[in-house]
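Much of the work behind modern protein science is quiet bookkeeping, done one molecule at a time. The fold becomes a row of whole numbers, each drawn from a learned catalogue of backbone shapes. The protein below has been through that process, and both of its lines are reproduced in full.
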Amino acid sequence: MVFSFRVLIQTVVFVACSCLGTITSASTAILPSTQALSLVIKEITKETLLPLVPANASPHDFSLKPSHIMRIQKAQLVIWLGPELEPYLAKVMSRIPSHKQFIINHEGLPLGYGRHPWTNPEYLLKGMLALSQHMGIAWDSAAWQQQMDALKTQIQSHQSQLLKNKQGYLVYHDGIDGFESYFGLEHLASFTNSDDQPPGAKELAAIAKLAKEQKVACILTDHETKPKLINAVIGPEVERIQIDILARNSTSLTSYIAKLGQAMLDCGRVIEL
């Protein structure tokens, strides 16, 4: 039976957890920097926490206000991505004691500023295991790994069909390279390397050529996409599929990854015989 990720998107996975030990109230004591990290914490603690950066704001152009600094100073534990990925936090976090902060490490992954490592299930798994150990909370990773393996099987089968059709997909910017790396994917081209950098003329010409040759099954668009630019380069006939890189519209980590996976499965609407 084929595992249905459309159902998974609507499902929240519950796992057993113990108390927070010295941290008495997760809702007031733990502060995630982003919405994606809030979902990471929720997998372990079952607590829905308000992130420092609003879910509808990009961390790339975010600036701290006094109220944000106050939240950081009051928190018993700040969970963030580190100075490379969140430079806007580097200065204030340098003044926070080490025992009051926890960095979800991305060691071994070729990701820096402008990238989104939380799209990579391997990164998320390592982060959840490390965080659960740090907080002294039992967390079973078996269900998570099983779901990711099932999704990988579906995605790779779909991409194989696209390749047979000599087609692939575009991305607006290289924000899901972590996701692509984990699932063995590679986009045809991107409009820009980072969502805060304008596309170059050379890249636009190459993309227009791919579209003209009908090699593009779809383009994955995100919160930074410039629709008028896309229309001008590839025309309206190429299918647009919206992806939620920042996890704005996700209430669980499994549904977040499943939605990204479903976008890949929807690309090209391949019919397997």
Q: What stands out?
A: The chain has a mean pLDDT of 85. The CA atoms of residues 156 and 183 lie 7 Å apart. The two ends are 16 Å apart (CA to CA). Strands lie at 30-32, 77-80, 101-103, 168-173, 189-192, 216-221, 239-242.
